[in-house]
Structure formats: C-alpha cells, structure tokens
Amino acid sequence: MCKHILNAQVAIRAPCCKKWFDCPECHKEKSDHELMKTWEIAFACKKCKKVFRKDMRDFEESDEYCPHCDNHFVVPMKTRATEGQLMIQIEGDSNMMRDEREKQRHKPGEMDEIPIFQQ
Length: 119
Description:
Elements: E1 10-13, E2 20-21, H1 24-30, E3 40-45, E4 51-55
Antiparallel strand pairs: 1-2, 1-3, 3-4
C-alpha cells in the first residue's frame, strides 16, 4: 500500500528496473536510481489485478478507466496532508460560476407595469 497516494487505484511498472511501484515517490524511496521517463506506461489495476499499457501521448478521458473492469483509476489524489479534509474541485474557467442572466434593476420609486386583465 502506498503511503504517498492513499487512494491509488493502479500500480506502475518502472521501465528502468522492471519492478512494480504504487507511485513515483515509492520508486524514489526504494531504488538507487532515477525513474526512467517513457511515453508508454504499464499499469496494474488494483481492483481486477490485470495489467494494461497506455501511451501517454494519446491519453484521452476514456483512458482514465481500466480496460478490463472499468475501474476509474484517474481520481483526485488523497495524501496524508489531505486525509479527512473536504476537497472541492472546480473544473473549467471561473466564468462557470457567474450568473449571466440579466437582472432587472429598478430606480427608487419606479414600479413595474402591472397588466390588467379584463374578464
């Protein structure tokens, strides 16, 4: 179990030493060499225990799921610093939160015209 990413959904295979680690920090702590960088990463899903590869140059939103069991493995990271804290994540730009509807403004003493219905 990873002590850096508490909710890790996959393990990664280090291309340099061909060993499995929960995160790059685990590799750094347990190895005497730097993690070799590569575009193609081998993952092992912690839910179904099956291995799959992803090319990070072509990574899309649909690639955030295990191809075998559909486990969503790209999730907001939980660390010891964030454990037990409420985390709010807003996607998109800040204009998403603004109310773009036009508000009616009245001058003091001004009233709306009230339609009178005759029967």
